């Protein structure tokens, strides 16, 4: 779907293997992916994704990674075959990649597991997506069911695991799950994500107004160029709330200006502010104009 605010929305509940994706690639690009290309931001909903195939990880991540470079996103160790496989983004994809300049949010829940968790982990470590929702399941990347002898009992156990090169070591999401950037109940994750994207969409206008205010009103004129340069080059990739934005702006602006009086505040509309009584504007409109002459003003005051 394309939601209000031109936000693309894609829900994936199961991830087929690379062979299936290759066969359906043309259909998916034409009827699904192209519908999202014109959106200004993307929400990838993996809250209900409980299964998938490791071979599809590079395929999906590649559409969210800029072209021209390849990225080593994971290394998978398989115990039965005693093999290690490196996963890299694809140098070419069918259709277009989603622009890296556009914001992206991934929704998660306590039911998100396996390959879906690996994709969430990779996108988070890449800095490509803001993860919103609940901590993921922390399940195994690949499970295998084994019969115990000739009995009717079976053992299900992990046979592959992620070595997670993007995580900076062998510690990955397995067992612990992927922590969201913004924690919220799964059923509220989409609403929360849309709020974050609304704020981020407003950032350019907020920064422009700050620049205008500094140029027109700030008394320490000699420090204005440095402040404008700071605003023009500030990194807002981690901003997910108004509180984050206010804290970052105040810390950075005060550091550059060396002026603790320079403050940015977010003023929310007052929901319980009194509303004007009906007819108030009309009554104000009938008041006599205040005369310019002092004697006439005095006479008007005495007459009232």
TrEMBL record:
Residue ranges of the region described as Disordered: 269-290
GO biological process entries: proteolysis
InterPro entries: ClpP/crotonase-like_dom_sf (IPR029045), Tail-specific_protease (IPR005151)
One GO molecular-function entry: retinol binding
Residue ranges occupied by any Tail specific protease domain in the UniProt entry: 1-185
GO CC entries: cone matrix sheath
UniProt entry keywords in alphabetical sequence: Receptor
Protein name as catalogued: Interphotoreceptor retinoid binding protein
């Amino acid at each position: 779907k394309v939601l209000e605010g031109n936000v693309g929305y894609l829900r994936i509940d199961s991830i087929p293997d690379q062979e299936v994706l290759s066969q359906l690639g043309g259909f998916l690009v034409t009827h699904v992916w192209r519908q999202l290309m014109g959106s200004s931001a993307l929400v990838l909903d993996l809250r209900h994704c409980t299964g998938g195939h490791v071979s599809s990880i590079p395929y999906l991540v590649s559409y969210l990674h800029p072209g021209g470079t390849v990225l080593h996103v994971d290394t998978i160790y398989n115990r039965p075959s005693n093999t290690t496989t490196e996963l890299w983004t694809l140098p070419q994809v069918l259709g277009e990649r989603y622009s890296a300049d556009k914001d992206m949010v991934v929704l998660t829940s306590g039911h998100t597991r396996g390959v879906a968790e690996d994709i969430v982990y990779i996108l988070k470590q890449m800095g490509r997506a803001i993860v919103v929702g609940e901590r993921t399941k922390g399940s195994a990347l690949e499970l295998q069911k084994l019969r115990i002898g000739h009995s009717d009992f079976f053992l299900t156990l992990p046979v592959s695991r992620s070595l997670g090169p993007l995580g900076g070591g062998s510690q990955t999401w397995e067992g612990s799950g992927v922590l969201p950037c913004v924690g919220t109940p799964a059923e509220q994750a989409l609403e929360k994500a849309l709020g974050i994207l609304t704020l981020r969409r407003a950032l350019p206008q907020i920064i422009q107004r700050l620049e205008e205010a500094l140029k027109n009103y700030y008394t320490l004129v000699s420090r204005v160029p440095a402040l404008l340069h700071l605003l023009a080059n500030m990194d807002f990739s981690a901003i997910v709330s108004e509180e984050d934005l206010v804290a970052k702006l105040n810390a950075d602006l005060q550091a550059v200006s060396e002026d603790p009086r320079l403050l940015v505040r977010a003023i929310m509309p007052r929901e319980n502010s009194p509303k004007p009584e009906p007819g108030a504007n009309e009554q104000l409109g009938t008041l006599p104009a205040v005369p310019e002459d002092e004697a006439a003003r005095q006479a008007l005051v005495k007459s009232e």
